[in-house]
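Narrative summary of target 7.
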Amino acid sequence: MQVEEKLEQLSVVPQAHPSYYMLHKYWGRKPHNLLDDYINLFTKKGDTVLDPFMGSGGVPIESNKLERKAIGIDLNPMACFITETTLLTGIDYDDLRQKFEDVIDSIPEDVIDLTYTTGEDGNDWLIDNAVWEEGKLVRIKYYRDTVRMIKDADETDIARAELAKEVLKKYEDLGYISYPKDKIMDYVKRSGKEYINELFTERNLLIAAFVITGINKINDKKIRDVLLLVFSSALPNFSSMIPADKKTVNGKSGWQISKFWVPKVHAEKNAINTLRMRLEKIIKGKQDVEKLLTETEYKISNTSSEKISFLDDETVDYVFTDPPYGDSISYFALSSFWSTWLNHTVDYKNEIIIDPYRNKREKDYSVRLDKVFKEVYRVLKKNSYMSFTFNNRHVKYWKIVIDAVYSAGFDLINVKWVDQPVASGTQGLNRKNTLKGDFVYTFKKLDKPCEFSDDHKNGEQIILDTIKEFTKKQKYVTTADLYEKLIPRIIKERAYYGSDDKLLDIDKFIAKTFNYEEQPDGKFGWTL
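Modeled conformation, tokenized:
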């Protein structure tokens, strides 16, 4: 059976992310078994697999497991750090734990004192969690051994929180610590916070500053890098971006939206406890992935894929990638939450994104993607394949991406929809009207780029036909089901335009033409 026939028959049931995918938060991760299935289908052992937009490293990791030579490229240094540290082997985990405890022990006593409260018995108890409301400390959960207690914050607790500001200034003035004061980029700014340090309470900012200082003094690079992974992955969890439940004094689910957002009622988790929990989770994930990794060579490159100078023509067997989602996710700006602490040098100028705050608009996005896919065409072997996922509901961004692929010299041969195993962070809080999966597009490299027509086909008619097809069988259609059928049809027929010959705005046309409302079964959907 030919590879294209096998692809047509391929059915991917997404599996939950394994522990080694959960070492560090990142955006746009694909199910590991999806990557496995596509890599297995299009390559054999020893082949070379390229991902020019690597992200947190799913393709290099799965390629290595399958004994394929992996090449991962990403301009975001945080993406490269996560991937390289995930692939790192030969860690002495007992030494790792000891080095971590040495760092904690190096924190001055007056800083540690700030993490205590006075219990009902008049003794000092450790703070487990605290709740702040509109900038004021209001509730505390404290503990000793297995006993947990809750109380309203008293004057002593509030005074300790205020004292943290003085202690922070003291150690900063002495030059013992430093912490990022970088301005938050406009694209990800929310709730009035202007600088990275404003996303933490002073108490947790102090702990973080001493921990990163201690980690950076470790000589063993492997140990240092894994502890930096522990540190950066824990940062969101003890930041002020965690919504809190005042009654239970618990932090709710983590970083909920792709913005830097401090809720009016937020949690202040014990930073040291949070770091210890992350340490054990990362050790578990690292040990799990080390059992699966092979000695097959790989290369991770923190460069732009607009010019892949280190690869010769026709040296890659297969490409699987996940191009930037237009204006959906600001990867570099969001990663600044970590990269500012890790002192990464970030090339924001050459990021491929739609970001009007930085005057990065459709033309820049289009030009850069054209260059990337021409490079992918150059390095890919003859008659080989490229697959990618892309998630954006705006036709104008689909058109830019697909046009760049076609003009580079590829032909679309297959489209599949794959559900997400879990809800994505990109879905934010409005989950009832979001797409809960990804399209996987597979293209074949042609002998040469071909000319293609840009006739203004009417996409509105395709929308009408698609919804009518659904409503013949059922009373309504959900947004996810609609887009699953709609986007491939629009792409295949290049029906990017409306009846007015302007680029189609699918959401606007549907909202104008159909009703979106809650159905008797509790779901939301479109009806005629």
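DSSP finds 16 helices and 16 strands in the chain.
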